[in-house]
Write a structure and sequence with these properties.
Helices cover 40% and strands 20% of the residues. It has five helices and six strands; from the N terminus they run βαβαβαβαββα. α2 packs across α3 and α4 runs antiparallel to α5.
Length: 157
């Protein structure tokens, strides 16, 4: 089964790095992800917020003019990792298959400790991925291959 609808659509993407230690200047994972999506001709913005549920949710609500949100970090087992819990509270639907695909494609045991997932809210895509540089390379590959079709599905009448 091949789905091509929306695959050429240029989307507006917000990359949100969630971290207790990274700053705009030291955020290599988010910056590398931004560069990759810009190469694909998408419009990309980026910001950094703390591992704080209110800041994470506010990153979404303050930027609803974007089509796709990629939350980088805060998906691990630490008590400070709250990205998924914060976004689950506001989401309308969770697409757990994204996390399954991410973990399967990583070929790394520690990926199974990540709570990578995809939420849908107001016809927007909210991806949650680990903050490591290797994870962002894989995430770009997967997200880029599905987000256009998903955008089409979420916005068609």
């Amino acid at each position: 089964m091949v789905h091509r609808e929306g695959t050429n659509k240029k989307l507006k993407i917000l990359i949100v790095t969630v971290s207790t230690s990274r700053t705009v200047e030291t955020d290599t994972s988010g910056e590398n992800l931004k560069k990759e999506f810009i190469k694909d001709s998408h419009r990309v913005d980026k910001l950094v917020c703390k591992d704080d549920e209110e800041q994470i949710v506010n990153a979404y609500y303050s930027n609803r003019d974007h089509d796709v949100f990629i939350f980088v970090g805060g998906t691990g087992p630490s008590s400070k990792d709250v990205t998924v819990q914060a976004l689950r509270k506001i989401s309308e639907k969770e697409m757990v298959g994204f996390g399954e695909l991410f973990r399967s494609e990583s070929h790394e045991r520690f990926a199974y400790l990540s709570n990578s997932t995809l939420f849908i809210k107001d016809s927007k895509q909210l991806y949650c991925i680990p903050g490591s540089p290797d994870a962002t390379v894989l995430a770009h590959s997967i997200v880029d291959s599905i987000m256009g079709h998903l955008y089409h599905e979420l916005t068609k009448e």
